[in-house]
Amino acid sequence: MTVKKFYFIISILLVSVLLVNCSNETEQAAEPGLLLGFSQIGTESAWRIGNTRDIEEAAENKGINLMLENANQKQENQIAAIRRFIAYQVDVIAFSPIVEDGWDNVLEEAKSAGIPVILVDRDISTEKEGLTSCLIGADFYKEGFMAGEYLVRKADSLGLEHVNIVEITGTTNSTPMRQRQAGFMDAIAGDERMTVMESIDGDFLKSRGAENMRYLLETYGEDIDVVYSHNDEMTLGALPEIENAGFVPGKDIIIISIDGGQEAIDVLKKGKINCVVECTPKLGKILMETAVKLKAGESVQAVIHPEEQIFSDEMDTSKISPRGY
Ligand code: GYE
Question: Which of 56, 69, 100, 284 could be cross-linked to 125 through a Cys-Cys bond (beta carbons 3.0 to 4.6 Å apart)?
């Protein structure tokens, strides 16, 4: 190789290295991005899994970088995740608080770091002002109220004189547990026929739904007229126990559930569940839009509730379209 040729090759190499560096820089500059830290509760239900998937898809569609942490049903894991998001200096923090109490300290830390916080799905209880920017989640009180109103209509249509109810609740001290109970109780209050024999914590888990149902059947047997369960997972756990005890769910015992996942809707279509109140897990799109606004310093709506409906044996259930979770 001549000296001239040697210098020519070297200069070509140098120019390419420079070009590669430049293009990397422009790529980075063109994608300043938004980094969103999201602490999810866990994987306890089809609802939760659908919610996680929806949030991941929405982040991808909007080109948002998502740091997703799964807390495996433990509040301390959620607190640790939020601390990691603060250390990473994410732009916005979002989380679904497993229970309502115990968040003040970590949220004070986020506030001091100047990071806005979005509550997704569930609320917190605090005396302090301004720890979070907004709440995006269902109106659980309304869901419980719709479930109670359905029961009153059902009792009317069957001409029932006494209605003995057992309630399998979600995680104690979680927003959906508190409000689904309050809404239901308010809707049946004043109806002399209704008696709630027992409310028992099923933690939103299928296994606990089954376990609790076994106990309730052993304790109250054929006195049970209604099972009001705070989510589909616990309902799906309870149904085989009812059948094993020799009762026909949907006929001998009125079954009311909440969420509206595909599996429960399929069972509703078979007549073994009487009513399912919808709770949509599809909160991803509005979460991303809200995160973008907060990063830009814009104001956002304090509470955002999605629209929800009720599915029951009062309607033609064959018309219910696929649920997607
Ligand atoms: O109903 C249940 C889930 O917070 C609305 O949590 C959510 C509830 C949902 O695990 O299935």
Answer: 100
Round the average pLDDT of the chain to a whole number and report it: 92
pTM, rounded to two decimals = 0.89
CB atoms within 10 A of CB 33: 12
Q: State in Å: Cα 208 to ligand 1 middle.
A: 14
Beta-carbon contacts of residue 168 (< 8 Å; ≥ 6 apart): 199, 200, 202, 208, 209, 212, 213, 216, 227, 228, 229, 230, 234, 235, 238
Distance CA 116, CA 127 (A): 18
Identify the CA nearest to 119 among candidates 141, 105, 91, 138. Answer: 138
Which structural domains are found in the chain, ordered by start?
33-138+281-308 (3.40.50.2300), 140-279 (3.40.50.2300)
Tens digits of residue pLDDT in 2-36: 555 545 544 444 444 444 444 444 333 323 589 99
